[in-house]
Amino acid sequence: MLEEDLIVLMERYQGGELAAFETLYERLAPALHRFLASSWDGPVDDLVQETFLQLHRARHTYLPPRPVLPWVYAIARNVRRMDRRSRGRHRRFEVEEPEQTLAAAASPATDAPADQVAVRDALARLPADRREALVLHHVWGFSFQEIGSLLGVRDGTVKVRAHRGITTLRSLLASVRGRLGGPREPSGGEQRTSPENVSAGDPGEPALPLRSPTRSR
Amino acid sequence: MSAIPQDLYREIAADLRPVRPLRPAWVRALVLLPCAAAGLALLSFLLGPRWLAEPPLSLAGAGVQLLLAYALLVLALGETIPGTRTGIARPVLAVGASLLAFLGFLFALHGTHPMAVPPGMELAMVLRCLGFSLLLGVVPGLLGFGLIGRGLPARPGVAGVLGGLAAGLAAVSVWQLFCAGTEPAHVLTGHGGAVLALAGAGLALGLARRARQDAAWARRRA
User: Fold this and answer.
1) Disulfide engineering: B98 pairs with which of A89, A165, B30, B68, CB 3.0-4.6 Å?
2) What is the pTM of this model?
3) Is the CB of residue B22 less than 8 Å away from at least one CB of chain A?
């Protein structure tokens, strides 16, 4: 999907062409569905529909020839936040994680159900901004640049958030294993699992159920 | 191929009139300048062209505050365009710079041209300045909030505060040219109070808008 095509479609949509909206919907809905599913525990269809409704009402706020995707994703994030607020579930969202994200995160690398539960719990305990960057990059495969556009922050900020998310996740998993009396970390494991000392690509770490980004646009 | 839900399709099709994209924020924020000019003309008509006798420092202070008010409104309107990289640093820096400029010119002017409020007149002078400043801030405030309302602010509260501060700062930048008092206590309460009041009004309007959106969404979901 070329950004230039989307810009042309948006201009036609702003001009009142229903066919342009239909094409936009066809092209954007699957990606929006994935995006909203990445941090949501309820039915996503409603949110996708509300996003398109908001997009329609605010279509005059799209300023050609700016990129369309950041504009669309910003509206989707607004809808997601609005939904969280209206449900009064701020606290719950801090401790819960969407089933779809967790299902996606449970890659074949995580065979044991206990591991999946541990990852799920650890993901749920991550700060929301780190979890969002981590999940969008490692689970859904968005590039840092794309995530920066989606979230309205610099690429470097996304990298830092994702990296801190990984290190925190590792720390949490290590502490969970310690509590459950699971396999102990190799010698020096405590040092390596501290956020300051663990690198995202440390081969000595236990395998995380996260996929490497495969998409590139 | 993703099928469009029927109710969404109907709603879109029923309201598919052509729309004109908003102008850039820096263009729309220019509305502040004619407002300030109109305020200056109105006060000159009501109170006489006192500002012509103001010291250069006072005129420079008014100009700088007006420019900062314009910058604040540009930021507020930038908040209303989804996908604009906003962050929190720029709004915080802009608000900080505006407050610093306000306080800096206040103390600089007081240092070079001290003018105490006559004894016994403190409250009356404060109320007068508050009244005129708020009066001057109403029109740019309403226009600013109207412009903000046309967009889709991700952070309505932030946009409202920035818009309110812009209106308040523009108003006091004009009013300070007609107020002889430079005593910090007077300026902070009579002029600064109006700025804070308009910023508070902006915040309240922004939060009210957000609450309205949330309630409408909750109703639709139900």
Assistant:
1) B68
2) 0.76
3) yes
In B, which residues are within 8 Å of A149 by CB distance? 83
The answer to whether the CB of A126 falls within 8 A of the CB of A98 is: no
Phi-psi map region of A194: left, alpha, beta (phi>0 left; psi -120 to 50 alpha) = beta
Query: Where does chain B show beta strands of DSSP type E?
Result: none
CB distance B95 to B162 below 8 Å: yes
The residues near A81 (Cβ < 8 Å, ≥ 6 apart) are B154
pLDDT tens digit sequence for A129-169:
888 888 778 876 777 877 776 777 788 888 999 999 999 98
Q: Which two tokens stand for residue B72?
A: 């604040």
User: What is the CA angle A81-A31-A131, rounded to 5?
Assistant: 50
Residue A53: which of B11, B214, B221 has the nearest Cβ? B11
Under the banding of pLDDT at 50, 70 and 90, the label for residue A39 is: low
Check if the interface score ipTM surpasses 0.90.
no
Q: Do A21 and B16 touch (CB under 8 A)?
A: yes
Rg of the Cα atoms in chain A: 19
Instruction: Give the C-alpha separation, B134 to B146, whole Å.
Output: 17
Residue A132: count other Cβ atoms within 10 Å of its Cβ.
22
- Which stretches in chain B have pLDDT values below 50? none
CA distance B219 to A137: 34
Give the distance, in angstroms, between the CA of residue A190 and the centroid of all CA atoms in the same chain: 29
How many CB pairs lie under 8 A apart between chains A and B? Answer: 107
